[in-house]
Amino acid sequence: MQLIINNKLYTDNSQEADENSVFVVSKQNEKFKQNAIDNGCKNIIDSSELKNHIDLSSIKIIGITGTNGKTTTAAAIYSILLDLGYKVALQGTRGFFINEQRVEDYSLTTPVQLGNFAHIQKAMQNGCDFFVMEVSSHAIEQKRIEGLTFALKIHTNITRDHLDYHKTIEEYINVKNSFLSDESPKLINKDDSKVKCNTKNGFAYSLENPSTYKVDAYSFKNGMHVMFNHFGAIHSFSSNMMGIFNVYNLMAAVAAVHITTQKPLEEICEALEGFGGVSGRMETVSENPLIIVDFAHTPDGMKEVLQSFNERDIICVFGAGGDRDKEKRPLMGSIAASFAKHIIVTSDNPRFEDPDMIIEDILKGIKNHSSVIVELNRKEAIRKAIEKADENSVVLVLGKGDESTQIIYDKKFPFSDKEEILKIINKD
Questions:
Q1: Are 40 and 65 found together in one domain?
Q2: Any idea what the CATH number is for the domain that residue 41 is in?
Q3: In this predicted structure, what is the pLDDT of residue 166?
Q4: Does 277 reside within a domain?
Q5: Euclidean distance between CA atoms 162 and 145, whole angstroms
Q6: Residues 76, 399, 294, 195: what is their CA dihedral angle, to the nearest 10 degrees?
Q7: Pairing of strands 233-239, 224-230
């Protein structure tokens, strides 16, 4: 990654470093420092010093962490701010956007530190008032966000994820919560007891517990309708999105925009209604039969999606990624068994694991296999689910969302749940 400041090249690639450039040392590249020196580089700085070399004071940075909801919350904030007339950049799982234009495709949820600074610089060059970014647990632990001053930090929730990296749920929780340990303005989900923060400059949203932005009522008849209380004043908004978890996501977005802009909540709620959701996140691919694609890939994420359709017969298609947390697999199976009438267990992104063994792990969490179909071929699994669908059912295809590939070993093969669904229902 490169950054140009006052016509000077800043790089974290030791092969690019020379006598005319600055080599930026981080946790990820510190072992290559000597190589940069050998290449003639005399200007070497620690990544924590980047903030002293570039002025970021003209832009407000909003960072969102949490196991679930980062992408939708970030996208909703981005959409609201744009509709309110601000210039905005968005960086996260779906890529890098500036003022509604995709600038880069997805690489990492949160880039390496130099990448963050380079993107923020580009946003400023395009006149952006805000920079909205997703913040992963990896980025927090690896100090990829070091040196950034946040106008607001948001924490959506903590559930089981990334234990292949963090090893224990306790470590994962501690890393997530460390994002909120300073005195930056912060916004938390008050209903998640695992979320802890430095209460100075703290705000909260909730459905159950008292908070700064407290939902008083909601319904899902012909879309989502929400009423909430802010210091005694009642406000409301509507959306075509579904699911209780999206009530949380949209409340976080409304609160975040209100805190960082001080615009009237009436204007913010009106702007929110123009947000249609995120591709692959609770996305309706077909109305008849009702087929929905979602990225849910953790037990709690699956539960949030599944419990949103208690009034329908649920047909659930899912698998689990290989070379990732194995202990979550039977938990995912158990959640599916608790809500779904029919379960079709299939392959996700097996990577270097045997897909059959991944499926076996999932099945350990399902006591009664009478409603379970095992179909390793994901396309055929989707087909079998659709064949079972009727007017009372909903087909939920979970785990991959808007991903366009399936990872087998270290190769990526073209595969889109949405595209395969459309092919099947259109009989192409």
A1: no
A2: 3.40.1390.10
A3: 47
A4: no
A5: 19
A6: -40
A7: antiparallel
A 10 A CB-CB count for 116 gives: 27
Angle at 129 between CA 127 and CA 132, to 5 degrees: 115
Q: Which among 272, 182, 175 has a CA at the least distance from the CA of 223?
A: 272
Is there a contact between 260 and 247 (Cβ–Cβ < 8 Å)? Answer: no
- Identify whether 219 is part of a domain: yes
Q: How far is CA 155 from the centre of its chain?
A: 11
| pLDDT, tens digit, 9 for 90 and up, residues 366-407 | 999 999 999 999 999 999 999 999 999 999 999 999 899 999
- Whole-structure pTM value: 0.85
The strand pair at 393-398 and 290-294 is best described as parallel
| 117 shares a domain with 255 | yes
Phi, psi of 242 (to 5 degrees): -125, 160
Q: Which of 242, 272, 302 is the last residue of a domain?
A: 272
**Whole-number CA gyration radius for the chain:** 22
Q: Hey, which of 90-94, 128-132, 273-277 has the most confident mean pLDDT?
A: 128-132
Pairing of strands 43-46, 8-11: unpaired
Per-residue buried b or exposed e for 201-210, using 16+ beta carbons within 10 Å of the residue's own CB: ebbbbbbeee
At which residue do the structure tokens 């609160």 appear?
255
pLDDT at res. 111:
85
Cβ atoms < 10 Å from Cβ of 199 = 11
How many Cα neighbours within 13 Å face the side chain of 17?
24
Query: How far is the CA of 324 from the CAs of 87, 349, 360, in angstroms?
Result: 38, 10, 15
